[in-house]
Amino acid sequence: MKNCKKIFLFIIFSLSSFLGLSQSQKDSLEQVLDSIYPKQIVSEISTENFTEYAPSISANGRTLIYESNKDGSWKLYLTREENGSWADEISLDSINNFGDSVDVISGPNFSYDGNRIYFHASFDGGQGSEDIYYSERIGDSWSKPQNLGPDVNTRSFEGFPTITTDGKTLYFARNSKNTPSGVSEFCYELYVTQKTDSGWTEPRILPYPVNLGCEKAPKIMADNRTLIFASLREGGMGGFDLYQTQLNADGDWKSPVPLQYVNTTDNDLFSCISASGDIMYFSKKDDIYSVEIPEEYRQFQNVTIQGLIRDADSQSPLTASLRITDANTSELITSFDNNPSDGYYSIVLSAGRAYNLEVKKEDFSSALYYYDLRDIESYQEYEKNIDLFTTAHLNVNIYDIELYDPLKSTITVKNDVGRTIDVVESDGENWKTRVNLPIGSAYNIEVESENFKPKSFSIDLRGLILYREYEQDIELVPEKVGVPINVNDLLSGGSVSSSQLIIRNKTRNEEIVISGNQTINLRVGDRYMVEASSDRGYAFNSTEIGITKEGKLQTIDEKTGEILEDSKGVELKLQPLAKDANLTLKDIYFESNSSDLFESSFEELDRVIKLMQSYPSMKIEIAAHTDDIGAALYNVRLSKERANSVIAYITSNGVNEERLISEGYGESNPVVTNDSEENRAKNRRVELKILDIKLAQND
Fold first, then answer.
1. What number is the average pLDDT over the span 469-489?
2. d(CA 11, CA 5)
3. Strand pairing partners for 142?
4. Which alpha helices (DSSP H) does 140-250 contain, by range?
5. What number is the average pLDDT over the span 467-494?
6. Which of 225, 268, 377, 559 is the most buried (most CB within 10 A)?
7. Is the dihedral of CA 81, 85, 86, 88 positive or negative?
8. pTM for the predicted model, two decimal places
9. CA-CA-CA-CA torsion for 25, 28, 33, 38, nearest 10 degrees?
10. For the chain, what is the largest distance between any 2 Cα atoms, rounded to a whole number of angstroms?
């Protein structure tokens, strides 16, 4: 049925174009067309007693401007779509009140991004009778009109402006110099001009077959190739009719086609179509109408992308430069700025191509988006808010290259001229330390940590900056010095070749296990517990050492307990395992006037446990000694209780209690005279005495 209608209409259209129909035949044809393509008056806008004229719709189809004489003179009004209908009109007072009450303000046209209104008016101070003006959106209001200037306006009439989606090509009308004979209407001819960095180019008249002498109200569509205009020419339905032409690939205009689905015997003018391309609004009989556009008349499919450009942190609006290029050829399609008052932008892209959208603002990040519209078959609309930022977040992970522990460090940020702009401290507990870097400069980042070799790296935040988060791993190498460690037999003084060393770092979590009698590289600034042992019939021995910030070795004299500040090496002497051999246990501490062990004592006692596990036949005596403070009998009892505490710890870790006995000697066996606090500390000790041991033949 639908195909039959199309064939019937084709015949009628052919007759009306070439044979010429009488007025009654045209009226009959109009009734047929109205039944197939019903035209509806836009009741929310149109009034009964006044004229509503020259509609123009925003790309997203949600805002409509038009002119009306409802206030006694021609003025501009705006309405927005709400819940499927048009809301109450808003008078554009900044435009309407700019001139005198008798001024004509007419032919409004939205820029496709909705940020400008172009129109013509008869304001004083223009170039001619009526000039083209524009007004820019400032939030919900509009700026005072600005004359487009002498590049476009002349002493003649210039009006009915329409702008391409990129804002670079303007079509408009001037008084016709070739009005057809016998025509009583005001006739115009259509012109085009391009915007350049220096202004608008000299307007050019559109060629035949677009201009025939009586054209009006051009409207360039969202694809920037389809032009709809009103014309009074032979073969029309009557009065001004709407025609459609397109630019071909060579830049020539195709022969205009009458839009029979909308044309009537009245004047049909001022078409406007949103980017969706399915509904046309137009002027007829002093009112604004709408009609659904047949598929065969619809323009190329489009996609609308719109949203706000904002500061990522404050969410305040930003004005930025938008640049659209062909993703395959890098051809520049358009470039423009968004609205500075609220950051709004709107882009209309034609289907059939792939695009890159680049958003840039000085001292801010950039944004880059790819849109592949090659397979788009229907209108689509995207909401895309774009947040730009002034600072990038550099997350620096600073850690020990060997131990992978986070390090407390100083991060110094220098700009490209070497000036320090920031110093940030890492806490040594968290892996990531954030450094905020302003966009628009290159930086050298220096990382320093005490007793580690410094390291630096560069980051360039100039040019196209798309990402806010950056991450850099910094592995710092510790400063080290070589420390010779020798393990000798306590009795013979000879080297214990079978010895093993366990070196525990007391500053950080590190343990080194090596054989004895060699030089080991240790970290500057750290302290170590060095434990020597041998599975060939020796007891263990341990000592604490340190490496100063200056790289000097600190050791402890085993006899005096004195700290040696600049030792050349570490010497540990091992007691051969034999009956009656004595071994003073180090770092065994008790609560004051108590037999309760400090937890710090467990490390040395664990060595005793390990030794007894290695030699199952060994039986030992644990003897505790005190200084001379307090009564002698009390000290004997206290020392006995402390020896028992030590044995309790050892047996609780799997050693048979039958292998141990305890003795408390009180103050009776001092190793030095109790004449100073330092000497008394030496006398407060726990000793291990071997009561019995059977060594294997290879021990």
1. 96
2. 10
3. 137
4. none
5. 95
6. 268
7. negative
8. 0.74
9. 150
10. 142
